[in-house]
Structures are given as C-alpha cells and as structure tokens.
From TrEMBL:
Start and end residues of each Major facilitator superfamily (MFS) profile domain: 1-191
Compartments where found: Membrane
Protein keywords: Membrane, Transmembrane, Transmembrane helix
Membrane topology, as annotated: Multi-pass membrane protein
Gene3D superfamilies xrefs: MFS general substrate transporter like domains
PROSITE patterns with a match to the protein in the record: MFS
Regions that span the bilayer: 6-24, 113-136, 143-165, 171-190
The keyword Signal belongs to this UniProt entry's keyword annotation: no
Major site of localization recorded for this protein: membrane
Keyword Methyltransferase: no
Organism, scientific name: Stercorarius parasiticus (Parasitic jaeger)
Record-linked InterPro entries: GLUT, MFS_dom, MFS_sugar_transport-like, MFS_trans_sf
Protein name per the record: GTR9 protein
Gene Ontology cellular component annotations, sorted alphabetically: plasma membrane
Gene name in the database record: Slc2a9_1
Amino acid sequence: MWNVLLSFSGLLALIQLLFLPFFPESPPFLLLQKGDKAGCLKAMKELWGEGNYHTEFDDLMKEKAVTKGTKIMNVLEVLKEPSVYPQLSTMLLLLLSLQFCGLSATASLQESIIPYVSLGVAISELVSIIFCSSIIDRFGRRILLWGGYLLMALILVLLETSLLLSDQFLWMRYCSVVLIFLFLIAYGIGP
C-alpha cells in the first residue's frame, strides 16, 4: 500500500498548491525584503480586513530602520555563528531521525544497497536545506512553496509510475531511488 500512502501526500500537496495563489504575501516580507510599502498595506487589509493598521505598519518601519544596518549573512557565516548551534543540532537530529522512517524501503532494493540509499536521503535533505536557505531571501516563501509543491506533485506521479513498473524493469527501482531523493529536495525547498 506504499503507492496509496505516497499518493495521499501528493493529494494534500495538490490541494495546497491550488489554494496558494489566493493568499497574499506576508506584510513583513513585502516591506522588509522588497521595500513595497503600498503592497504591505494592501496585504494587511487582505489578511486582517478593513481597519487602521498604521500602528503595525509603524512597527514594521521601525524594524526596517533597525535592521537597515544589519548585514544579511550567507549560509557559511550562519554556520560559523555559535548562537545557532542549538538550532543546528536540533535540525540535524530531525534529519537523522528520518533515516528510520522506511522511505528507502519503497524502492524494493537489495538489502546491501539500502544503507547507501539512506545516506543519499540524508545528503538530499542537507542539499535542500542549504539550497533553500540560500535562495529564500531572493525569491520569497510563496515562490518556493509553489515550486516545491509543483515539483513534489510531478515527482510523486513519476514515483508512482516507476513503482508500478519496477516488477517489469529492474532498473526502474533505481529510478525510484533517484525520485525519492528529488522528492526530498523539492520538499526541503518548498514546504
């Protein structure tokens, strides 16, 4: 029943993908990252209804003024910062715990290859985290969610097809492994 389980997560991703265009961007993102004051006020009205949001807008303007001189750090600079070590260790613990979820068993591979698949899963998750943290400021969360969910939906369709054909073509099992890696990267970049 792996195919049903994988299809269920794809269905949820598709539902979220369909409703995503109807949500406005985050007001702090619009003001602090993009510098769009009018868009920020419009998003506040869309999210909270009609009203006077000058207090919240002023707070965001103060935050923008405070962070104006703050340097935005890249991934390597963040990793060198000792204050992020507790969060980093928590993230690594979560990534390592995914190794026990059985994701590598979906491809029906030989037992001798599964440790390498598990290692590939961990590397895929690490790549997606580094890649996402590098591009999130450039594109914003909305585009990453859109792209992530679209890729996840496409990959799940291809994964389902490869699992159905894996009994006829042995090489399709390896395609399933590659698709699992790509799914994890798309998940890390998007949702």
